[in-house]
Design brief:
By secondary structure, the chain is of the alpha/beta class. The protein has three helices and five strands, in the order αβββαβαβ. The longest helix has 21 residues. GO terms for molecular function: transmembrane transporter activity.
C-alpha cells in the first residue's frame, strides 16, 4: 500500500482492488448457494420393460422421377397431369398415407416442384424426400 503524506501533491497511480475482490467473493457465494437449486432432479426408479416393436406400418407410396422427367408411382409410369388425381384416390383409400418422393439429380427442378405441389394439393401431409448418402 502506498501512503501519502500531506506534503506531497502526487496522485497515486495504484488501483484499489479491495472492492473488486469483495464483489467477486459475494458473487462466488451466490453461485455456490444457487447452483444446487438449478437442478430439479427427483430420484425416481423407473420400471424396466421389454423392447416394443413399432406397429406394422404400411409401405409408403413412392413417387419417382427418372432422369428424363417421367413420373412413376410404385414403378408404374403415369402422366404428370394424372399424378394429383392418383394421389387423391390413394389418400381416399388410406387417410394416413405416407409418400416418398425420389428424383434423379439430373431432373429439372421445375419438374420436382410441380410433383411436390401436386402432392400437397392432393392433401398429403406426410412427405419424405429421398436422397442418396
Amino acid at each position: 500500500m502506498a501512503f501519502s503524506t500531506q506534503e506531497s501533491d502526487e496522485v497515486l497511480s495504484e488501483m484499489n482492488v479491495t472492492p473488486l475482490v469483495d464483489v467477486m467473493l459475494v458473487l462466488l457465494v451466490v453461485f455456490i448457494v444457487t447452483a444446487p437449486m438449478l437442478t430439479n432432479s427427483i430420484p425416481i426408479n423407473l420400471p424396466k420393460t421389454e423392447a416394443v416393436a413399432p406397429p406394422d406400418t404400411k409401405d409408403p407410396l413412392v413417387v419417382s422421377i427418372d432422369g428424363s422427367g417421367k413420373l412413376f408411382i410404385n414403378k408404374d409410369e403415369i402422366q404428370p397431369d394424372l399424378l394429383e388425381s392418383n394421389l387423391q384416390a390413394a389418400k381416399a383409400a388410406d387417410a394416413e398415407l405416407r409418400v416418398q418422393l425420389q428424383a434423379d439429380d439430373q431432373v429439372d427442378y421445375g419438374v420436382v416442384a410441380r410433383a411436390m405441389a401436386a402432392i400437397e394439393r392432393a392433401g398429403i401431409t406426410k412427405l419424405a424426400v429421398i436422397t442418396a448418402r
